Please model this.
Amino acid sequence: MNSSHLLIRAYLTTLLLMAAGCGGQAQQAVLAPHEIKEPAANFGVQPAPAAAYHLYVGNESSDLVSKVTFVPGVGARVDRDVPVGIMPADVDGPHGVVVSPDSRYWYVSLAHGTPFGRVVKIAVDGDSVVGMVELGMFPATITLSPDGQFLYAVNFNLHGDAVPSSVSVVYTPDMVEIARPTTCVMPHGSRLNVNGTKQYSACMHDDELVELDTRTFQVTARFSVRPGFETAMPLVTPGEHDHAAMDMNSMGMAPVVCSPTWAQPGAGAWSSFVYVACNKNAEIVEVDVRTWNVTRHFPTGKTPYNLAVTPDGKLMLATLKSMAAVAVIDVATGKELARIATSRPVTSGVAVSPDGLYAFVTNEAVGSTRGTVDVIDLKQLAKIASVDVQYQPGGVDVVPLSTH
Model:
């Protein structure tokens, strides 16, 4: 590969605002009550809200991406559902969704594949497909570099053997996969740090946090988040370091596992930390990636799944998948400020608006019940709106449509 492909352009730090929304048949918003454990804390002067926010929601069992508009003081509505499936006889399973920094394109990962999955690039104007690339097995969470030039997709490999998988790096102008470094078994929760220099993913099967250098597309660090064995690891082939768990099994002891589902870099004063959701150990682990040590443990309710932080890094949102709730955590103190009930069970994805005022939470629901998107006011720590989408919503991203 030509060395020029390894040079990433200067990262943009400001999201451009979308100029207009999409028309279509709207659904009436449903306002819902909320549950707060404690009064909301005052986190300083809040920016003015946008006039409206536009959401992209991947519905995994519907092969549809819902375009949702939320207007503060009015509610949320579905503007339209965009078909993204390819296979006529099976479900492709849209999983991750992300909007480009210039708001011109949105991307969706089609996870299930035949057998390999894809990422599709779609123009915001008209929702027309402008590019597609085949990746590994079950590409799941996706994220973009701050300039939008590179997309990172974790190949979760849900339906394959328990073997080391990978992260696909896609050059988005041409929709070409330029690197696929091997990382670990069942990588998930892919996110970049605030500078765009490192990509982090969690390994559900290996109990690892893996760091990828975005300038070389190579693994630069591995860290075990298995309870009792939290330590930096050598850069060896995944699976060669699993002796502790094997020793426990040989003694008839079931190892305590983290089963991490998300890796979320911090922001602001906490930009040197990465937060890992331990789905099976009911906690969030704070890892200092300068020293590669665990600095704090944040207890949560059962099954923390996806994480997001506000742009200033002061609040962290954790979806609690089996509890139909989302936890709001004060990062400075590690204290849970509120646990807000969601409108449907199987709480899944979460995204925070660029101004830090709202969080948007997807709820997969069960069986033939359609899922929902809930809107959380991060100043009041309250659920203020909810809207039905399609079946099994998961991935979600948000951009402001316009401002006052």
Notes: Confidence is low (pLDDT under 50) at residues 1-44, 243-248.
